[in-house]
Design brief:
The chain is an alpha+beta fold. The protein is 19% helix and 37% strand. A hairpin with a 4-residue loop joins strand 4 and strand 5. The two termini are 22 Å apart.
Length: 321
């Protein structure tokens, strides 16, 4: 761990209200191996950078961070490792939209399609003339349907388990309908589901993510009052912060479930709204039997700065809140 002052050059953006902080310079040297192995190296040896960038006093629990890396795959414009207040993410679609806008801000990419390397695979993104970004996410799928979970205080809650770059429990009939006025109630309900998934034995008895991965995102749905928008969503992330955007990996998981249920045809557009009013447009294509989601949204640069890690500062590596 460094014993001298360190500067992390960051660019902040928001995608549909959800912030992304990209470390573009000052990060550690990571081995020239796969992005998944780089993530493990970052977790093992340099986790203080995640905490310094995301935790207070420099950050907040809602920020998603991204470390910009040289790609291993030479066909990719960049490699990226995503993280949040409690750990690391396999993929982050809102973060990729923010990353594309960040790279364009730096003059590193222009309008057109670009490939990005993540720890869970290669994704693509199109920067459109109007500044919108369409992300071609990793293959998504539903691993279990109509799972029943006994949630204390709420009774039986039914939902699907699906992968969209992260693992989600998608609630079929939420007790609390998503709206901005009900944030605390939604958070309490979704967190109770998350705990029930772990404590009821469901995750220990095989109904979980592939390779035993924890289902650590909970997604609720309800009707949207906006004409032409199919659904309003509330996503609770692993660190108990809710996603201000409609959640790109959550939208991907939803698209996979819709396709599996015969409710969405390839190429059809599904519009998903967040509780703050931002909207993602999603669709799927099928290649070699795999469901490939595409999610379109907008991001905006909000700041460019150096984070200073002073060795005399007792909170230089962040503080738990």
């Amino acid at each position: 761990m460094p014993s001298q002052t360190r500067r992390l050059h960051v660019i902040d953006s928001h995608t549909g209200g959800e912030p992304t902080r990209v470390i573009v310079a000052g990060g550690p040297e990571l081995p020239a191996v796969s992005m998944a192995e780089r993530l493990e190296c970052l977790r093992r040896n340099h986790d203080y950078l995640r905490r310094a960038a995301i935790h207070e006093p420099r950050g907040s629990e809602i920020i998603v961070g991204a470390l910009l890396c040289e790609p291993v795959d030479p066909t990719c414009a960049a490699g990226v490792i995503y993280f949040n207040n409690v750990g690391y993410l396999g993929m982050c679609v809102h973060g990729t939209i923010g990353l594309v806008v960040t790279l364009a801000h730096l003059g590193k990419i222009g309008v057109g399609e670009h490939r990005f390397e993540t720890p869970v695979g290669v994704g693509s993104a199109i920067l459109h003339e109007n500044g919108e970004v369409t992300v071609g996410n990793v293959a998504s799928y539903r691993s279990a349907s109509d799972i029943q979970v006994a949630v204390p205080g709420y009774g039986i809650v039914r939902g699907d388990i699906a992968w969209g770059g992260n693992w989600f429990f998608l609630v079929k009939e939420p007790v609390v309908v998503p709206s901005l006025e009900k944030v605390e109630e939604l958070t309490t309900f979704a967190w109770a589901i998350r705990q029930a998934l772990k404590e009821s034995g469901i995750q220990g008895n095989g109904v979980k993510g592939v390779h035993g991965k924890e289902v650590d995102h909970v997604e609720l749905f309800g009707p949207s009052p906006v004409k032409g928008v199919h659904s309003r969503t509330f996503v609770l992330c692993p660190g108990k912060a809710y996603d201000r955007s409609p959640c790109g990996t959550g939208t991907s998981a939803k698209l996979a479930c819709l396709y599996e249920d015969g409710k969405l045809k390839p190429g059809e557009v599904w519009r998903q709204e967040s509780i703050v009013g931002s909207v993602f447009e999603g669709s799927v294509s099928i290649e070699n039997g795999k469901i490939l989601p595409r999610v379109k949204g907008s991001a905006y640069i909000t700041a460019e700065a150096d984070l200073i890690l002073d060795p005399e500062d007792p909170f230089r590596h962040g503080m738990s809140t």
